[in-house]
Amino acid sequence: MKCQCGGEFELALARNVQQLLLPKSSPSCHWCCFGVKNLMAQGLGGDFFDFITLPDGRQVVFLGDVTGHGLHASVVMSLLYGFIHRACLKSCSPLETVLETNQFLQSFAERSQKYDHFFSSTLFFGIIEPQTLEMQFINCGHLPPMVRRDKHLYTLNSTGPPIGFFENPDIEMRSFRFEKNDRLLLYTDGISEATNADNHMFGLRRLSQLLMHNEDNYLEFLDRIFAELKNFGAPNPPQDDCTAIIMDFHPFLAPVPRGQTLPE
Fold first, then answer.
1. Which of 189-198, 205-214, 223-232, 244-253 has the lowest mean pLDDT?
2. Which of 147, 148, 97, 146 is nearest to 123 (CA)?
3. Which domain holds residue 57?
4. What is the Cα–Cα distance from 192 to 144, expressed in whole angstroms?
5. Phi, psi of 222, rounded to the nearest 5 degrees
6. Are the C-beta atoms of 119 and 108 separated by less than 8 Å?
7. I need a surface site. Which of 66, 73, 167, 169 has the fewest CB within 10 A?
């Protein structure tokens, strides 16, 4: 019998490297509270996300889900994660960034008809202006993020196909203006499509009801989502990668100069 120690070590190393890519904390700012929770199906996988503060003060948030999960998805995820970071430094438009990322994936897909479908991903990419709370966004085939505003629910629906499939995809950029006390939930299909032993799906309806009828703070709400998955009977570790991002909005406050305090 062959020893698998080498293979197990390599997988553990791959998991550790992937975790180094993903952010360990969310931004600290004066206009929003960020929270994120991620659970990979096999310890590594295809979900990727980050929060990038641009030099002009605008805030990038993105969440994507590479086709498949496991080791091959983690490789494509790493490529995408690095490319998007680099693209953000030279582009101020979500549309330009996403189109460049699509071309990047296409360049790999063209090399092999056997593996081309692995070089594809859903992607939600938004840039928020803190002073107006207006977000320009692209949703390439990703499940629609949800916005809770008082008793109303808004969805940020798809504006184009998943990236990597088409050379010249028809992608539209849209905008959404947040208001005080809005809560934004971004998530991957590992949450909404989780199934229990009876083969029932957790579903978008259950997730939206949880969003609309929960008053926990943003970090407690993240824990509540994953607790509800457990109560529902979804397996742990999950069958697919699970990621949830929460953003709670409040009025813009200019940064306080060092040595001063906020007025009461």
1. 244-253
2. 97
3. 43-249
4. 11
5. -60, -45
6. yes
7. 167
